Amino acid sequence: xxxxxxxxxxxxxxxxxxxxxxxxxxxxxxxxxxxxxxxxxxxxxxxxxxxxxxxxxxxxxxxxxxxxxxxxxxxxxxxxxxxxxxxxxxxxxxxxxxxxxxxxxxxxxxxxxxxxxxxxxxxxxxxxxxxxxxxxxxx
Length: 139
Hints:
The chain has 139 residues and is mostly helical. It has helices spanning 4-7, 44-56, 73-77, 87-97, 103-138; strands spanning 35-38, 60-64, 83-86. Strand 1 (35-38), helix 2 and strand 2 form a beta-alpha-beta unit. Helix 4 (87-97) packs across helix 5 (103-138). The termini are far apart. The relative contact order is 0.08.
């Protein structure tokens, strides 16, 4: 990671890396202000820690699915990850924070209503069970 523009010539669309606004002033790993990792793949965090965070002390932040996040809290405790966005809830919180509602808030709204429905069905099921049990005792 000593000469990024020479090592990574263009992006996935063929745009030269030197021409990307976010790469302006970036020459090597030490000139990167923050790496934000968005991945659902296991092992990618460890790769980035070994690639830039460990050797060059580049800050690393990450966004994970809610299921993956618990495995990465030790990395936060150790200071290897500076911040973590966790699942749809984390996305919704970020959208709220930057005042730009999007898919995260929509997912959390739908999920909240699904939870309410599950609770109602549990209550209905329990009431039905208690009524049926009462009928059995009367017989």
